[in-house]
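Milestone M4 deliverable, item 7.
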Amino acid sequence: MKLRPIVLILRLADTRFENRIAGAAELAEATKNTLNTEMAFVVQSGETTSANTDDLSINQRMTEVFSVVVALRNDTTQKDKTGVIAYDTLFDVRSQLFDALLGLELPDDENLCVLTPVSYAGGNIMSLNRAWLWYQFNFSVDYRLEAQAQNKYLEEIAANYPNLDEIFAQYELTPSDNIPLTGPEGLPVNIFELDMEQLVTRPEDE
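Output delivered:
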């Protein structure tokens, strides 16, 4: 699953985080330093697959899960340091994320055919202290993994080398900057860059 289109979609959506939505690298930066403002981070959470159902080809159902990790201020008032206010804010944040992501149809990827739109997969508290509430919202998409194991080249090898026990194949993944987005104009890539220098405070800066 390509996460960059999801980040861009959330940046253009009507959420309390506005343009302050980033990825895993920025999340690592934020957790190691002091966060200056509320942010959201889109990260890959995991994937599961079913057993292959074909003998001569690949036919598996795969579920990929991505998460939107949010950091909400818990120090908005001096009276409440228990997380009640920040936790109440989660309901508004969840609604905003639902509006942007639920039912979203992602494009097919190489060897992956999208079976379902984006659905909600639950959430959990990651951390709570006097300053911040960290919460993780999970979303899932089901794919069909299909790859033909036989073609004319392999058939010729099998005919010429009937005693060959194993055939090794090497797949090279080539990164691409092209984002397969739909819409008349697509999504502007120039809103993707974030200046983490302005969003976090490192210990040596204090």
